[in-house]
Amino acid sequence: xxxxxxxxxxxxxPGRPPRFDAAELSRVSLSADGRRVHLKLRxxxxxxxxxxxxxxxxxRVLTAVPRDPGAADPALVHRLAGWSLRHGEHxxxxxxxxxxxxxxxxAVQPWQIAAIASLAGHDxxxxxxxxx
Length: 132
Fold this sequence. Notes:
By secondary structure, the protein is mainly β. The chain has helices at residues 58-62, 110-120; strands at residues 7-8, 20-21, 24-30, 36-42, 48-54, 82-88, 91-97, 103-108.
């Protein structure tokens, strides 16, 4: 479950949309056509709500999460249950499997995989690679 402070305002100020602060993310699903992500939420009192977002805006949502795990809340660091690499329509597809059963797939280039592998061989076992 992904937690937030919860409260749903009954009446928003005039001219402003209502705000829902979720306490729990209870379900995530993808529309049948794969173009929208549906989030089922609950507020602190257990009242349900749902939000539907276009898939192509998820990158902007993810950029709001802190990027430096050393500076971030440990709860924001995802654990990896497994991974796979395969050829797909968009080239190499690197899929990370999360402990909750979710997956995240990235289209990657062979040089990116080679860079990750070379960093994993260093004494620190960590690093970053960004092309100029």
